[in-house]
Amino acid sequence: AKPDEPTASCSGKNGIDLADRDIFTRLLDLQKRHDWNQVKVVDECVLENATVDYCKLNANKVSSEFACELETFKEFMGNADKLKEYDPKLETLKHIKTIDGDIQLLYSAYKRESRLIAPREFLTRNIAMLLSNKDAVANGLLKPSNVDGAAFIQVSRSYTEDADFHEVEKGWVRGFIHAHGYVAIREGPKGCNKIKIYSISCVDPNGSIPKFAMDAAAAQTCKTIALIRTLCEEEQQQKQ
What we know:
Blueprint: H1 22-32, E1 37-42, E2 45-50, E3 59-66, H2 70-77, H3 83-86, E4 90-99, E5 103-110, E6 120-131, H4 133-138, E7 150-158, E8 173-174, E9 176-186, E10 195-204, H5 211-239
Parallel strand pairs: 6-8
Antiparallel strand pairs: 1-2, 2-3, 3-10, 4-5, 5-6, 6-7, 7-9, 9-10
């Protein structure tokens, strides 16, 4: 890794192994799968799905190329003030506590989709990490022959250790996130304005939600990623 490029912690001679931490495992497993089925393309964002054995619903993946630096995307995703720009349905976001030094426990609640569908809330563990070239290669995000690239990963998973830590609000339904997050990969050297973004999600909203609403939500993810792409590219242009 280059001296001015942050690296993930606890890196050994072969790079860190994110599979050693359960918060990363399912997102990484989904990222590496080769059996995704393309559903549609919206705003130059490709929506795919795949079945999983741990959830009754499909996992979804949206991918797109961004014309910005990896650092620009990382900074954007780490800015809580930007959340409602690309996720207007988010009603509440609260930081509960920090776990194991670097994992944030967050409570989030989303606006009601319609009067027939109860609003959803989530209690999740969250972490973001910038990976050096060595660590990205070690975790299968870059080919072994790549010596310049890097990656960024942001992931959320439902928190179940203290099921009653945050009581479910009356009238709300608590969903379960098996895996949700972003994998951003830069194959070129630092400063390269070309990255590939993957938004990966496997969520069980629990309760009853019509299939058409679930399909619409998956398609909406494409528009969300397209908006994030526009905002990140605008920020990149302002830096130049």
